[in-house]
Amino acid sequence: MLKLSPETKVGIFVFIGIMLLVYMSLRVGGIQFGREEGYEISIKFDSAAGLDKDASVRVAGVEIGRVKDIVLQNNKANVILRIHPDVKIGKDFTAVLKTKGLLGERYVELTPGSPNAPLLEAGGEITRITTYTDIDKLITILSDVATDIKKVSESLGNVLGGSEGQTSLKKIVTNVQEITERLNKIVRTNDEKFGRIMSNFEVFSGDLKETGPEVIKGLQEVADNLNHVIAENKDILKDGFGNLKTATQKLGETMDTINRLAKNVEPKIDESVNTVNSIVKKIDKGEGTLGKLINDPSVHDSFNKTLTGINSYLGRIETFKTFIGYRGEYLFDSSDTKNYLSLRLQPKADKYYLIEVIDDPIGQRRSVTTETTVGTTTTTTKEVKTSDLLKFSVQIAKRFKDVALRGGIIESTGGVGMDYYMFKDRLRFTFEAFDFDQKRNPHLKAGLTYNLNKYFFIVGGYDDFVSRVGLASPYVGIGLHFEDEDIKYLLSSAGSIIPKQ
């Protein structure tokens, strides 16, 4: 194995640090390496809540670009997209903000229009926008509905509650019963009269059959005489017959209406009275939803508490995030790589839980004493041996502006840590102290972490730099981390796993 002098190691570490600082300065200053490919278009949304820079832009579920910038323009969110050069966007495309999964990050979905529509040139704007109701508006609507239901139940309770309400309702039922009885009497009276009329008409038709010829002859004479009289008094009779005809028609229509009304109203009134009686009894006993709303005030409180709990639960799920990460650190002194697999549970922006599994190639160093006796001479030999060890960390962290304090178990021993964030969280200085062993000194580690983009980052620093057993070593490494929506969904489904706020 190649042995490097201390001066060479320090020189390599300083050179890597200078290169990192130069790269970070160029990135923070907005200087790009190479030219970005593609062309830019814009969309104006009424609200771009939840949409971040560098978010995905998709068509039919396939990523075709990224969100370059989001700026406020005329009280609207002007979202600038960078589209891949080989993708063509039509002027009639429709833009909509969607969410990955149930509680994932937001992205821009473009829905194609007509295949023959003209293409949108660089710098153009998509004017067709589709918006969906967000969860806050839905909760507001549910709260308004609950308030309206409560007002209706209180009003109904004030009207029907107490002795006055019961007396009024009893009077209504009594009046309806009296009307029903009167209609029944009218119907029975008309039935008897109609039967007598039909009997008389039957007798009359029999007599008319026997004396028909004589009656017809007499009627003919009467008709001739009547025609003669009518001819002589035509003008006088014209008005009289006209009025009589009109009165007869109106009387017939009135009788028909009364008969139909009596036949149709009777069963409906009986049914209505029975229904009203049943409803009033159930409400008075407190049965059903309306009865409970009127007679049981606790139902109102329970309903309001349920809506408040749903709103609070959805708010916690919306802010809850989970991240999975890996990083490898190359230790120059031991020429080995130290591996970290991490899971970060973040219920709030200023609070998170960190769980790590570490594959430490150095592990633990221990002194081994060997005694060899030759004759009367005893020789004692001491050597330091190392062994691989799989370690774990469980920490809780709280952030105060640009400083985050951590504590818990670090690499299977108690310890504390501090993180200082710079350049909008792009650069992070880390210091950790753990394994407070007086024989070998505490394990101190300091380093820098720089985020290359949303997923990849590089690290560098000095590990165990006060060690008494020769474990101090500079290191560099690279890693990745990303938000895992599946773990987030599982944790949000299991209420007992989500940390209570």
What features would you highlight for this structure?
501 residues, ten-stranded antiparallel barrel, Porin, alpha+beta, 42% helix, elongated, eight-stranded mixed β-sheet
At the fold tier of CATH, the topology name of the largest domain is Porin
The total strand number stands at 18
Class computed from helices, strands and strand pairing: alpha+beta
Into which percent range does the helicity of residues fall? 40-55%
Instruction: Give me the CATH architecture of the largest domain, please.
Output: Beta Barrel
Mean pLDDT: 78
* Gyration radius, in Å: 46 Å
CA(first)-CA(last) distance: 53 Å
Q: Which regions are unreliable across 5 or more consecutive residues at pLDDT < 50?
A: 496-501
For the largest beta-sheet, the strand count, sense and barrel status come to: 10 strands, antiparallel, barrel
**CATH class type of the largest domain:** Mainly Beta
Sequence of secondary-structure elements: HEEEEEEEEHHHHHHEEEEEEEEEEH
Strand content: 25-35%
Strand order of the largest sheet: 9-10-11-12-13-14-15-16-17-18
Shape: elongated
Count of the separate structural domains: 3
Give the helix tally: 8
